[in-house]
Structure formats: structure tokens, C-alpha cells
Amino acid sequence: MSIIIWILIAVIVLILFIALGYFNRFAVLVNRIENSQSQIDVQLKKRADLVPNLVETVKGYTKHEKGIMFSVTDARRALLGARTFRDRVKAGNQLQEALKSIIAIGENYPQLRASENFKQLQEELASIEDKIAYARQFYNDSILEYDNLRSTFPGIFFASIYGRKDLPYLKIEEAEKKVVKVKFE
Amino acid sequence: MSKQIQHIDFRDQIARNKRNSVFLLIIVFLVLIGIGYIIGKVINADFFIFMSLFSVFSILYIWLSYYYSSNIALWSVGAKEADKTKYRQLYNIVEGLTIGSGLPMPKIYVMQEESINAFATGRNPKQSVVCVTTGSLDKLSKDELEGVLAHELSHIRNYDIRFITIVAVVVGLISIIAQMFLRSLWYGGMSGRDNSNNNGKSDALLIVIGIVLAIIAPIVVKLVQLAISRKREYMADAGSVEITRYPKGLIGALEKIKNDKKPIKVSQAVAPLFISDPAKQRFFNLFQTHPPVEERIKVLKAM
Fold first, then answer.
1. Among A120, A134, A144, beta carbon nearest to B100
2. Which residues pair with B156 in a beta bridge?
3. How many structural domains compose chain A?
4. Measured between alpha carbons, how far is B120 from B109 in angstroms, rounded to an integer?
5. Nearest to A144 among B3, B92, B101 (CB)
6. Is B114 a catalytic residue?
7. Is residue A145 in a domain?
8. Structure confidence by residue, pLDDT tens digits, B33-78
């Protein structure tokens, strides 16, 4: 009789340990997802901070390109005003496109192209684009791992107990790209 | 699904590396004590005092190699911490890769050296260092440099750095001890020739054991080190592609490394740390530390 009780206790302890393990695993993954989200935000903020400096640098050389300057400052304002993460990512993409066209215009002015400040801004912009791409990739990888854990046994069982919901992937939407193109024609 | 398998794979690798590091340190301790025992016998020192001194020395040595091996390795190749404004692009690339892999930012070192090479060291990801040669910065494109740095970051993630760096320092020390040992036996043998042979038999036996140990120990350590480091290179190549999602970068870098014939003069002990064999051995031999570059390129192209 007592042996059965001991076995029961052992099984319960084992289940508790597994439950704890899954609880921690979910918590770690969700933290990772949130962290990569804030990483994207940090980079978007850096991109926005780059705008005044870039506009200032470029303005002196390119007198006739007022329109593009306005669209960049507009895009920056849209980014800083965006409430949700998704909107911020979207606004960030638009800002990137606008900044790229400023850089492209800048390339036409040899003096500007040669200036140290312009080169540095170019490198900064490129690296921010890379970092956002990497943060997105890490975000999606973490979601994949989270989904895998959530959809396989016994994770599927613990996910429902702990109320771990479906989290969305970050996708580059075709619509966003089109909007940007229309804006600069 | 394959992604999931890969993840499990590198977690195994991490566990293996941690376990091997502990094993290695224990084995080193035992070997040191063994060597101390033999030295004590040969030089006829007071057994108790000598052994306690030797144990203290061994423990100190193991403690040092655990906490300072990366500093020793960096110092031995003459690397300096990279200036943040001068190497801005390098810092930006590494920062991007750490975001992509979720690793903490390592310290970045640069070593003045014309040929293309890089290595990572440290005892865990938080205390890690990535070191590149100035040649890599000059000769590699941005994508290629990214591939190389991602390869180094996978070594960091897999805890290869802990194991390999400890091995490097241990190999360095054991070869020094073995050298000293062989030399002292040589001189001991010369002076001991005209002694009476009252305990000559046990002396001779000890000397034989000593010689065998002195010859075998470096070879064993070396073989252990090599057997493991080839698989590591393949895993780190795969990890690099997992981070950059762009195999062409690393392939390009390896192609350039292949055509770069100039060897780097570094101690054999730190050779396994590098992304490609710094000695540039072209022929196959037992002591090759890295899989042939051609093989690695082939594997990467098949990805």
C-alpha cells in the first residue's frame, strides 16, 4: 500500500517539475520576444534622431530639393507619433525609404558626397537598417520557437493552462512599399 | 522543423562544452599532481611538502586558466581593443549580429596582421571577446566580414570559446612542463651516472614512466583538442549562416582565406581558436586543427 503512495508522490513531483519547466520556458521566450520588440523600437528611435542632422547637412548643398526634406520630416513625425508597435514599424519603413532618397540625391552633389559628416550618416543609416532587419529576424525566430513549443505535446497542454496566446509574426507588407513609392514620384 | 532540430543540436553542444571544460580541468589537475609526484620522486624532495606545494600550484593554475585564459590568449597574439570611432563599421556589424542572435555585445579586439583571420575567446557569452586581424578588415567586403564575425559569435554562443581557450592555455603549460621535465631528466641522467646503483632499478622505472608521460601528455592533449575542434568549425559555419541568412558572405570570406597564402606566426597552442588554421598547412596530417577550407565551402554551398 505504502509503495503505491510513494509512486503517486513521485509522479506528482515529476509532473510539477515538468510544469515548472514549461512555465519558465514560456516566460523566457515571451521575454525574448518583448526584448526584440523593444530592440526594434530603439533602432527606430535612432533612425528618427538621425533626421535633423541629415537634413541640416544636406540642406546647405541642395537648395532645390525642398520637397524631399518635407517628406522626411513628415515621415519622422509620423514615426514619433505612432502609438502601436505595428504602426511604428510601418512608419519606420516609410522613413527609411525617404532617407534613402535623400542619400540618393546627396550622391549627385560631389562636395556633399565627399563630406565626412555625410559619409558617417550614410554608414549610420545603413547600419540601422541592418540592425532592424536583424531584430525582425530574431523576433520572428523567437515567435517560431514559441509557436513550436505551444503547438507540440505536452507544450500544447501547458500553453492552455498558462494562457499563452498566439503572437503575430512581423511581415513586410506589400502595401507599405507601394505607399512609399507613390509618395516620392 | 529543421530549425527546431538545429536549435536542439546547439544546446547539446553547449552542454557538451561545459561538461568537457569541467572534465578537462579535473584531468589537468590529476595530470599535474601525477607529474608532481614523479618530479618529487626523481629529485628526492620531501614528499609531503613538495606535494602540498604542487597541489597549491595546480589549483592556482587551474583557477587562473579558468578566469584569465582569454586575457592570456589575447596577450599572446598581441591584440588590442578596437577604437570605437576608428572601427565604427566593425562595431556596427557586431552589434547587428548580436541583435540577430540575442547574444550580449562582446568586446572587440584588433590584431595588426596582414592575413585574413579572426577568433573569439572568453569563458562565457557575457565575458567574450571577438578579435579580427587588420587584414580581414582591409580585404573582406562587408558581407564577408559579417559572415566571419557571425562564425565567431556562434563559437561564443556554443561555449566553444570556454573549452578551446582553456585547452589552449593547458596545452601551452603542459608543453612547457614536458620540456622542463625532459631537460631535467637529461641533466639528471648525466650527473647520476657515477652514483652507486643501490636504488637504480626504481629510479630507472620512474625515469621511463616520466619519459613516457612527457611524450604522451602533449600528444593526448593535442589529439583531444583536434578531434573536437573540426566538428566545432562546421557547427560554427552553420551557426553563422543561421544568424546572417546569407551563406555567400562566409563562402566569399573562405574563398579569400583559401587564396591568402601568408601564414601568421602564433603559438601552436592558440591556433585552434582561429577561424582558419593560421599556420596554413596545405597537406593532410593528424595534427590539422581545422577542416580543409575547400570542404567547408562545399558544405556551405550545399546549404
1. A134
2. none
3. 1
4. 9
5. B3
6. no
7. yes
8. 877 777 777 677 777 787 888 888 888 888 887 888 888 888 888 8
Q: Give how far A3 is from chain B: nearest CA, Å.
A: 35
Cβ B89–A148 below 8 Å, yes or no? Answer: no
Chosen from A31, A123, A141 to mutate, greatest number of chain B CBs within 10 A = A141
* Average pLDDT in chain B: 79
Last residue in a domain, options B221, B239, B260 = B221
DSSP code, position B274: B
**Are B99 and A138 a contacting pair at CB < 8 A?**
yes
Judged by a CB distance cut-off of 8 A, whether residue A135 touches chain B is yes
Which are the contacts of B87, defined by CB distance < 8 A and separation ≥ 6? B108, B110, B137
- Is pLDDT of B229 > 50? yes
The residue behind cell 525574448 is: A32
What residues of A are in contact with residue B102 (Cβ under 8 Å)? 32, 35-36, 138, 142
Catalytic residue among B152, B242, B255, B295: B152
**What CATH number does residue B134 fall under?**
3.30.2010.10
Query: Does residue A4 lie within any of the structural domains?
Result: no
A131 interaction partners in chain B (CB closer than 8 Å): 92, 95-96, 99
Same-domain status, B9 and B141: no
In this complex, the residue of B88, B93, B245 whose CB is nearest that of residue A137 is B245
Q: Look up the domain containing A40 and give its range.
A: 19-183
Same domain, B131 and B234: yes
**What whole-number distance in Å separates Cα of residue A6 and Cα of residue A39?**
49
Residues in chain A with pLDDT values less than 70 = 1, 64, 172-185
Give the single-character DSSP code of A154.
T
Domain interval for residue B85:
80-161+228-301
Do B205 and B265 fall into the same domain? no
- The complex scores an ipTM of 0.78
Kindly state whether residues B246 and B214 are assigned to the same domain: no
User: What is the total count of domains within chain B?
Assistant: 2
CA A91 centroid distance within chain = 12
CA–CA dist B103, B127 (Å, integer): 11
DSSP for A21-60? HHHHHHHHHHHHHHHHHHHHHHHHHHHHHHHHHHHHHHHT
The alpha carbon of residue A1 is apart from the nearest alpha carbon of chain B, in Å, by 41
- Note the residue count of chain A: 185
Q: Which three cell numbers stand for residue B78?
A: 598581441
